[in-house]
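Look over this today:
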Amino acid sequence: MSLPLLRQPKTQVTLQQRTRQSQYEQQFIILTLKSSIKLVVTSDSFHCIVNVGDVFKCVLCNTNMDAEVELKEYHKTLAEHHRLLKIYPYLEELGENLVRQIDSTNCFCTICSIVTSVHYVSRHVQNDEHMRELNKAVLRAETYKPCEEPPNVNTVDLNNKK
């Protein structure tokens, strides 16, 4: 007597999908702040794109995309997306914490790649996890030594942004 094969639980399938999605090569951006501090963050985080289950979500544009890297990369090139990046710059009072206020109630932390409430953002930038991620971004900038123009690193100078 043989038993039929059982399907994997849905949570395991979702975990496998997330693992597969996170295996694509991350692109990084070197940000130069007004204070001349350099930070290295992922391109997705800079563009306010997060991976939510089996979709990519641009929290800036409030757009969901299938979890296909090509769609996500195409979204980053859209004029409307770039317009919103300019409309919602980083909050100067939070300095190198790289927080954008994306609407009247929410902010996006580029360092941690999360959405947080406007009312909670001050506590967020002081918590240990955010400080660890900020230190990683600084360390990446200090240790990054490009040999030539690598395809997975871009540079953005925030000194000219207002």
